[in-house]
């Protein structure tokens, strides 16, 4: 019997005091022998009698002590035998010296008290109480003559009182029982201290761990080592779902989140430890899979701040649950409480870190995380360790026309699109590359350990291709592209902010070069970006400063040669740079929102000038190119209707052109807007047709009146058979659907003849006229009318295409052309 140490008020095992107990026995024996030798008359017996008894006592106790010491911890049970020998010796000594009147009685009492106090003061108090109670019982029994002395000793009648012997023997039996009880208390004390140490060790080990999975593993290991549990499982709970966090001795526990098992649910509902003899696999699939044929389970919920965050499931090795001690269940409860608090703290810390380090929408890193990783990659120490400075590159990714998606389809679709984009970026990069969402529709990739720039360019090319494929967001098919800027570290000591700024500049150059592409940073780009920013700032006041101008390019009826309409082109009259074409500012205006003011001005000014033309130009129609952002703006239909009313232009003379890519991003609201415009008498045309992914289903979905064939197919058709075939297919498509076709960018007679022979109704381009002012349109129309007979003779003998006599769907004769204000073209 050992003690874990002495604390005030705690029990102390007698085995720890055997040296003092042995000295007490030896001292008692010497006192009795000396007393009987010096004053035998006082004891009422002789030295020979006491000496013999004492020698036997000393020999017996010495032998038992020797055996006890050799047995070590296993000899603790001999303590009871030693105490019994002590009691018998004292009983014999009192018998030999006169029973209850013996002068050794006081010595015996002191000896017994000393033995009790050696055990502990609590045990000594118990022994003293038992002794006093026994004395009272014996006295009352003698007084009531319940106990009478037996007066027969060796065949002679001797007045002998047996009560002292009975008293001392019974007392030592009680002392032996009290010592055993003390030993049990000592065991409970050791267990209690061990349990307390278990909780202290658990708290210390969990303090250094912030991962819930590692914490769960520590809890299982500690409980298994402390109590010998066979198998164990820690479950994490989130709502109605549970996930196995850690296991010990179980099957593969890394399962996907599932519904709460019946047993776990019952323990959670009761919010207390639950003992289960066996489980039903059908009602508890997760436990049955992790712990097949499990029996005698303890299921304890983990509760922190009143919230259930998981459960601990343990399989006890006992054959039945009655073998589980109450203190074990108590410790499991306390361990569960400590683990729950630490796990709750870990989860909160993880949430805080996620908020600080991760983008909450896409789950990728955020700007702060990306900046820290980039700074670490650019540390001089990493470069000195042998890594090339040029091995670190930043790819700055920006989605093209993402604002159009938000404006037309709503922010919910926009958010879902960002999540899909983040997924494609992550799957298109290598392991070890850092992916982050910087904000809005901007992403970045940090790639390191690239042997050369070619590997980085390969990643960029793959990203452009993957991000440009259509996305299926719910019921919407969304098409966006991405522009990517690339900047590589130039050497040791480079600042991360410089690298980011360089990549950003390269990204803007990729946009300026036509989007859906990537560009590698060049130092001259910063000057271009500064110029772009200045332009963006100036665009906000173009209308206010009256710096916008309109010019018109005629559109010719290919069958008759007459001017059927005009296309108005917007220009910026910059005080410093002169007349600036739309290619230099319209894209920027769409990005910063200035397109709304510019678009309103273009529509009103074009309608106003058209109404000023004379009766000879009454048959000329006007079409305004509308950006996707304008089309998705609330109240757009009402604004167009008000402009027509204010300027007095007949709605049937106005055609609105929308680019093919803009219509690809349209939704049901866009279709409704186009139909409302058609209801006013306005015609709808698709600009740059053939450059996107427009399908026949789209043509059936949208109220389309005309297709404008992209100039690429018109100009390349002379030398490229595929382009010529595509142009012919578009014209044929228009014929079959009753939709007019307009060929853009005609610059040679051969191109004009070829498009007329295909049956294309209208054409425009430098071959017919460069853009002119509104005042020149009237004279140009008159000159075209005078030249019409010569044109007819030139075209004589050529078979006109079927569209030459096809009536305009929903409109007047085929001499009416669709013309437009092209913001983006020259």
Written account of the structure:
The chain is built from 30 helices and 24 strands. It is α+β, with helices and mostly antiparallel strands. The protein has four domains: 176 residues, no CATH class; 149 residues, GAF domain (Beta-Lactamase), CATH 3.30.450.40; 157 residues, Alpha-Beta Plaits (2-Layer Sandwich); 260 residues, TIM Barrel (Alpha-Beta Barrel), CATH 3.20.20. The chain has a nine-stranded mixed beta sheet, with helices on both faces. The chain has a six-stranded antiparallel beta sheet with strand order 5-4-3-8-7-6. Strands 10-11-9-14-15 form a five-stranded mixed beta sheet, with helices on both faces. The N terminus and C terminus are likely disordered.
Please summarize what this structure is:
The protein has 826 residues and is α+β, with helices and mostly antiparallel strands. Helices cover 51% and strands 16% of the residues. The strands form five sheets. The protein has a nine-stranded mixed beta sheet, sandwiched between helices. Strands 5-4-3-8-7-6 form a six-stranded antiparallel beta sheet.
Strand content: 15-25%
Shape: rod-shaped
Let me know the number of strands: 24
Query: Do you know the CATH architecture of the largest domain?
Result: Alpha-Beta Barrel
Q: What is the CATH class designation of the largest domain?
A: Alpha Beta
Summed up, the helix count is: 30
The percentage helix is 40-55%
The domain count comes to 4
**Straight-line distance between termini:** 102 Å
Main sheet, how many strands, which sense, barrel?
9 strands, mixed
Instruction: Report the C-alpha radius of gyration, rounded.
Output: 51 Å
Quote the average pLDDT.
75
> In CATH, what is the homologous superfamily of the largest domain?
EAL domain
Runs with pLDDT <50, length 5+?
A: 1-13, 149-162, 383-390, 795-826
CATH topology of the largest domain: TIM Barrel
Structural class: alpha+beta
Strand order of the largest sheet: 18-17-16-24-23-22-21-20-19
């Amino acid at each position: 019997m050992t003690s874990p140490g002495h604390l005030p008020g705690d029990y102390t095992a007698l085995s720890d005091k055997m040296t003092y107990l042995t000295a007490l026995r030896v001292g008692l024996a010497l006192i009795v022998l000396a007393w009987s030798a010096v004053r035998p008359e006082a004891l009422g017996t002789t030295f020979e009698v006491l000496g013999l008894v004492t020698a036997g006592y000393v020999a017996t106790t010495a032998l038992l002590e020797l055996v006890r010491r050799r047995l070590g911890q296993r000899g603790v049970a001999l303590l009871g035998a030693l105490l019994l020998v002590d009691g018998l010796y004292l009983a014999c000594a009192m018998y030999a010296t006169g029973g209850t009147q013996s002068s050794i009685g006081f010595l015996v009492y002191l000896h017994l008290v000393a033995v009790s106090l050696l055990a502990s003061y609590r045990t000594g108090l118990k022994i003293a109480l038992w002794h006093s109670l026994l004395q009272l019982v014996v006295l009352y029994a003698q007084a009531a003559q319940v106990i009478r002395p037996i007066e027969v000793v060796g065949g002679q009648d001797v007045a002998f009182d047996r009560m002292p012997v009975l008293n001392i023997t019974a007392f030592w039996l009680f002392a032996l029982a009290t010592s055993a009880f003390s030993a049990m208390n000592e065991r409970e004390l050791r267990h209690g201290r061990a349990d307390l140490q278990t909780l202290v060790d658990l708290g210390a080990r969990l303090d250094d761990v912030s991962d819930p999975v590692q914490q769960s593993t520590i809890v299982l290991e500690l409980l298994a080592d402390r109590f010998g549990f066979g198998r164990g499982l820690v479950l994490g709970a989130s709502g109605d779902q549970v996930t196995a966090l850690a296991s010990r001795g179980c099957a593969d526990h890394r399962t996907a989140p599932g519904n709460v098992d019946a047993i776990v649910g019952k323990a959670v509902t009761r919010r207390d430890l639950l003992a289960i003899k066996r489980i039903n696999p059908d009602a508890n699939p997760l436990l049955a899979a992790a712990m097949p044929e499990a029996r005698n389970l303890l299921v304890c919920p983990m509760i922190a701040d009143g919230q259930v965050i998981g459960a601990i499931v343990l399989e006890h090795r006992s054959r039945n649950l009655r073998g589980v001690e109450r203190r074990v269940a108590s410790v499991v409860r306390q361990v569960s409480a400590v683990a729950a608090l630490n796990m709750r703290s870990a989860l909160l810390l993880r949430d805080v870190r996620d908020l600080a380090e991760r983008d909450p929408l896409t789950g990728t890193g955020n700007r702060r995380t990306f900046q820290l990783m980039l700074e670490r990659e650019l540390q001089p120490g990493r470069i000195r360790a042998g890594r090339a400075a040029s091995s670190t590159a930043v790819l700055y990714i920006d989605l093209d026309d993402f604002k159009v998606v938000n404006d037309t389809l709503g922010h919910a679709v926009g958010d879902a699109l960002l999540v899909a984009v983040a997924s494609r970026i992550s799957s298109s990069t290598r392991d070890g590359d850092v992916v982050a969402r910087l904000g809005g529709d901007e992403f970045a990739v940090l790639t390191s350990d690239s042997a050369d720039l070619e590997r980085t360019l390969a990643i960029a090319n793959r990203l452009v291709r993957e991000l440009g494929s259509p996305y299926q967001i719910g019921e919407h098919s969304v098409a966006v592209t991405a522009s990517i800027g690339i900047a590589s570290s130039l050497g040791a000591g480079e600042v991360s902010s410089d690298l980011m700024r360089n990549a950003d500049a390269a990204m803007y150059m990729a946009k300026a070069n036509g989007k859906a592409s990537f560009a590698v940073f060049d130092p001259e780009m910063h000057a271009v970006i500064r110029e772009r920013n200045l332009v963006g700032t100036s665009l906000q006041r173009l209308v206010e400063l009256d710096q916008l101008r309109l010019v018109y390019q005629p559109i010719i009826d290919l069958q008759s040669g007459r001017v059927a309409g005009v296309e108005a082109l917007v220009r910026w009259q910059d005080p410093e740079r002169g007349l600036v074409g739309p290619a230099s500012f319209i894209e920027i205006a769409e990005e910063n929102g200035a397109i709304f003011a510019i678009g309103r001005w273009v529509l009103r000014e074009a309608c106003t000038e058209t109404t000023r033309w004379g009766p000879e130009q009454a048959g000329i129609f006007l079409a305004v190119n509308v950006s996707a952002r304008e089309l998705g703006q609330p109240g757009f239909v009402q604004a167009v209707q008000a402009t027509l009313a204010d300027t007095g232009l007949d709605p049937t003379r106005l055609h609105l052109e929308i680019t093919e890519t803009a219509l690809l991003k349209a939704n049901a609201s866009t279709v409704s807007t186009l139909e409302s415009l058609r209801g006013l008498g306005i015609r709808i045309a698709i600009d740059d047709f053939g450059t996107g992914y427009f399908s026949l289903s789209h043509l059936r979905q949208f109220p389309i009146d005309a297709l404008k064939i992209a100039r690429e197919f018109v100009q390349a058709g002379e030398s490229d058979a595929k382009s010529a075939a595509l142009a012919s297919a578009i014209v044929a498509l228009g014929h079959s659907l009753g939709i007019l076709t307009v060929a853009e960018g005609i610059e040679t007679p051969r191109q004009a003849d070829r498009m007329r022979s295909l049956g294309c109704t209208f054409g425009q381009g430098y071959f017919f006229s460069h853009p002119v002012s509104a005042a020149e349109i009237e004279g140009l129309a008159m000159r075209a009318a005078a030249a019409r007979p010569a044109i007819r003779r030139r075209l004589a003998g050529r078979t006109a295409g079927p569209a030459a006599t096809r009536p305009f769907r929903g409109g007047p004769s085929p001499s009416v052309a669709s013309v437009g204000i092209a913001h983006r073209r020259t």
